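Hey, resending since the last one bounced:
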Amino acid sequence: MKIGVIGAGSWGTSLAILLVGKKFDVTLWMRREELRQKMVQAHENSDYLPGVFLPKSLKLTTDLENAVREKDLIVLAIPSHAVKEMAGRIKKFLRGDTIVVNTAKGLAEGSLKRLSEVIIEKLQPDSSCRIAVLSGPNHAEEVSRCMPAATVVAAHDAALAEKVQDIFMTSYFRVYTNSDIIGVELGGALKNVIALGAGVCDGLNYGDNTKAALLTRGLVEITRLGLVLGAKRGTFSGLTGFGDLFVTCNSTHSRNRYVGMMLGKGHTIEEITSEMKMVAEGIKTTRAAYELSLRHGVEMPITKEMYAIIFQKGNPRAAVTNLMQRKKTHETEETAFE
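The structure tokens again:
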């Protein structure tokens, strides 16, 4: 099988290594020739995944046509804001039966659509049968070092999901299938918003009780919006819901938690992002999630406060106070007293 991985960040590089390990013919595409030359010479991606050896059989290129043409499967491992443009660029090189697996986690700015919807629109209306989504609690720093992890692949077509499952499954990377592509994508995107909030709590030096409350109530509002948009409740209890939320809110590898932590310490979003090499998807997703909550009349108080902190220069400590002093209510809608 011939595979093209688009995006040589930490996750794209990690997945390329995984797929080469399964004896597939893998080409990894990157934008910068400077990075390609560094990777060829050092046999590692020192910019995004230092200390991890690159297999000699992994092909490296900056030629997009070379990475896409005549491939059986394409992996999109690029920031969410670049997905629409990239889908348009690769369209002319794709075979009609090529599978496209998206790994980016976010929502489209403006349209607020899920990324699989964006990809389908850019390719062709009948391409949904070959579009899949890979999402879960997976830090590249660990997967690239063969530490045991699990993930989810979702698609509209069960046979496609199972085929992608077989392609990515290894002894250290367990892949589950899920028919709820809406829930899988929303869980992967929206948990980044809550992770920003978790980082704010850490930056303010709050404790475990605070973090537990934030994660629990964060999952409630993720689920609340997800159900309105057509997702299944059970998805948010799984790997791409609670699992991804837990790891992103707590891990030192989490870029979104880091951004939140710096916000909690008093830094501005401009100061924080100017010093980062990689993208914290939660920043753009916070705006999209807030706009979706308004559009559908869904109560998302944590998202609302994170929007105020990032885009309205809100005070982090005041945001926590706002959340704590909201009107009293029942824990869940299902258990409210009659």
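The chain is about 50% helix and 15% strand.

Sorry for the duplicate.
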